[in-house]
Amino acid sequence: MHGSSTSCALGFSGYVEQLKDPHDFFTGRLGNVEYVVCKDNNKKVRAFHNVCRHHASLLASGCGKKSCFVCPYHGWTYGLDGGLLKATRINGIQNFDVNDFGLVPLPVATWGPFVLLNMDEKLSSELVVDEDKVAYEWLGSCADLLSLNGVDASLSFVCRREYTIECNWKVFCDNYLDGGYHVPYAHKGLASNLKLESYSTEIFEAVSIQSCKGGGESKGDDYGRLGPEALYAFVYPNFMINRYGPWMDTNLVLPLGPQKCLVVFDYFLETPFKNDESFIQQSLEDSESVQIEDIILCEGVQKGLESPAYKFGRYAPSVENAMHHFHRLLHLNLTK
């Protein structure tokens, strides 16, 4: 294990590709924080609480382009720098300073293809600009390892798929973190293309990285979808980065209640493959098959956890150390 167990205030919010041009924006939610991220007129990335300062309405939804944010409730209008441009029907209001009612900023940073937000209210709201510092704060000592393994901004976005699963969010994470334990039993098609005896796990501060060599038939440098090696990085508490062959996909797990979660998959591809429609379609179909198999597993585990017969299990030391690391970090957070 590298370093000590830590948790980080930085959290994934979106992708650099969503902010290609001035006026691009996207929204989202982390915990109880609604946020909007945008690129202003000067091509500067900014982030704010997505909450009107008048009556707490959400300002924006989804993603797209806006030259300003207009509250759909009472028409208060904000610039992309967060400043209040227009407050409607406030004649007679006393002690009102327009500078006190701009959008509340959030610290924002980028690393590789990712846009990150700092949710620690104790920290400064200034933009974080030192990418090396950001990399260490978010990923710890494995940042360079991920960069060297092709986790970067050169990949092209392909598509997003979302799955609503009838299980607690931690059940999905546990399934991801079992060191390939379930793969030969639940993913026979996937297992046939992996050398499972090569499966290994490395633990870092708030990240675990599982890796496995590809085992399918190869023709020269063509290893198909999975490539010669697959890498699976779990960034505590709920974000996963998977790099294999020419592909990268990410998984964001969002709790929807004690027995339900939403998992957001985003797929990226190396540029030379982005126009190969048959390869893309076949790869996405193969990925979909694996996701359906995992959903069946996770929903079955959720039902089993609710049974009075189950109290607790034991970790398999040779494979489930990434899961144990996740549980330790979670326990540390919950008992602070």
UniProtKB/TrEMBL annotation:
Source domain of life: Eukaryota
Record-linked InterPro entries: Rieske_2Fe-2S (IPR017941), Rieske_2Fe-2S_sf (IPR036922), Ring_hydroxy_dOase_asu_C_dom (IPR015879), Rng_hydr_dOase-A (IPR001663)
Cellular component GO terms, alphabetical: chloroplast stroma
Cofactors demanded by this protein: Fe cation; [2Fe-2S] cluster
Single GO MF descriptor: 2 iron, 2 sulfur cluster binding
Gene3D superfamilies xrefs: Naphthalene 1,2-dioxygenase Alpha Subunit, Chain A, domain 1, Rieske [2Fe-2S] iron-sulphur domain
SUPFAM superfamilies tied to this protein: Bet v1-like (SSF55961), ISP domain (SSF50022)
Family annotation (Pfam families): Rieske, Ring_hydroxyl_A
Pathway connected to this protein: Amine and polyamine biosynthesis; betaine biosynthesis via choline pathway; betaine aldehyde from choline (monooxygenase route): step 1/1
Domain Rieske, chain residue ranges per copy: 14-117
GO process terms (BP): glycine betaine biosynthetic process from choline
Compartment(s) of residence: Plastid, Chloroplast stroma
Keywords: 2Fe-2S, Iron, Iron-sulfur, Metal-binding, Monooxygenase, Oxidoreductase, Transit peptide
Catalytic activity line of the entry: choline + 2 reduced [2Fe-2S]-[ferredoxin] + O2 + 2 H(+) = betaine aldehyde hydrate + 2 oxidized [2Fe-2S]-[ferredoxin] + H2O
Xref: PROSITE patterns: RIESKE
Enzyme Commission identifier(s): 1.14.15.7
Primary role: Catalyzes the first step of the osmoprotectant glycine betaine synthesis.
Protein family according to the UniProt entry: Belongs to the choline monooxygenase family.
UniProt name for this protein: Choline monooxygenase, chloroplastic
Organism whose genome encodes this protein: Cucurbita maxima
